[in-house]
Amino acid sequence: MNYLEIIGTLIGLLYLWLEYRASIYLWIAGIIMPAIYIFVYYRAGLYADFGINIYYLLAAVYGWLVWKYGNKAHEKAELPITHIPLKYLPALMSVFIITFIGIALILINFTDSNVPWLDSFTTALSIIGMWMLARKYVEQWWAWILVDVVCCGLYIYKDLYFTSGLYGLYSIIAIFGFLKWKQMMPKP
């Protein structure tokens, strides 16, 4: 499976570059990469990461449609980068907490996972981050920075060194992505 991890890593680099540029084509890589990582994570016993890649496949289709057609104010115009409305934060926090605890309990009770809390933490936060990315909220980068840092250590622990390197790079580039998206935001 090492070749799949390497291919997934390369597609992940392309995905990150396209996300940094706020290119709609990130969603194509966003379909291919999770299809590969479904197999990588299952074999590594990272069951929540395995499961979230199914979500990523579906979210990539959703993200493509929202970015392409989600700007109701201007027909045929792409969705602009914006700040997340504060009214969404309590709901997002609730979804995160419920998902985090729920996934952890499933992993503890029904799998042989030896990292249920970290696996469920990164999965729950990734669900939130992916939704924010699909809506083109600049704050999505903060979710990804935290996910990437935690995943970097988790994947070293699970001997997924290429993937850990990818997530280490993600962590660094996500900081620059946040700054780039701030510059690309429409001025009020």
Automatic annotation (TrEMBL):
Keyword terms of this UniProt record: Cell membrane, Membrane, Transmembrane, Transmembrane helix, Transport
Species for this entry: Bacteroides nordii CL02T12C05
Protein name per its UniProtKB record: Nicotinamide riboside transporter PnuC
UniProt-listed Pfam families: NMN_transporter
Keyword Cell membrane (UniProt): yes
GO molecular function terms listed in the Swiss-Prot or TrEMBL record: nicotinamide riboside transmembrane transporter activity
Family as reported in the entry's similarity comment: Belongs to the nicotinamide ribonucleoside (NR) uptake permease (TC 4.B.1) family.
Keyword Ligase carried by entry: no
Source superkingdom: Bacteria
UniProt cross-references to NCBIfam families, sorted A to Z: NMN_trans_PnuC
Its job: Required for nicotinamide riboside transport across the inner membrane.
GO CC annotations, alphabetized: plasma membrane
Transmembrane parts of this sequence: 24-44, 50-67, 88-110, 116-134, 141-158, 164-181
Topological category with respect to the lipid bilayer: Multi-pass membrane protein
Subcellular location per the Swiss-Prot or TrEMBL entry: Cell membrane
